[in-house]
# Entry
Amino acid sequence: MTKKRVAVLISGRGSNMAALIAAAKADAYPAQIALVLSNRPDAAGLAGARAAGIATAIVDHAAYGKDREAFERAMQAELETRRVELVCLAGFMRLLTPSFVRRWQGRLINIHPALLPAFKGLDTHQRALAAGVRIHGASVHFVVEEMDSGPIIVQGALAVHDDDTAASLAERVLAIEHKIYPAALALLASGRVTIVDGRCRIESTEAAAGYLIAPAI
Ligand code: GRF
# Structure
């Protein structure tokens, strides 16, 4: 099996990055993490990547001012140097230009801490509580030009408790994120995701886990 070469793009803590690195250690996992790239030199996740022996790169957006194309050209150069085939955004806090998104179309995915299409954007846990939803969760989706709007690959859900706070929800949703992101990348890297009419079709055979995740992983 040739493993797909993956870059994980981060801006901060990097716990999803760590979950992807851990999953990719398995011989049978269809992807390898070839690069961790951060747009912030102080991202805590960089140390974790280095400790795991993963190549890292920093493309500091601040050095490019308002020139988003130049920033993305520098990122693209790093991706090409490492012969990256798939890109995972994992807490990467920069909006990407339409031309970068188009260039990586079908090969660029993101994790969002809500059940899309609900609660796109920031402060998802606070907004889920304010809306009074009883079920909340996380989504891994393809990146398209419109933020948090691409075809959904995997979602994981949990019940909202009456005494939940944004922090308690964040903690429980994060545990789900760490399961669904490696699962979604495995589906993509093994060619089991196709997009039909803007929706993902998934070829998945594994049994369902003890919590609700669709597709069953
Ligand atoms: C996660 O909640 C992810 O869903 C969101 O940003 C957060 C990143 O956390 N996009 P981490 O850096 O992966 O720990």
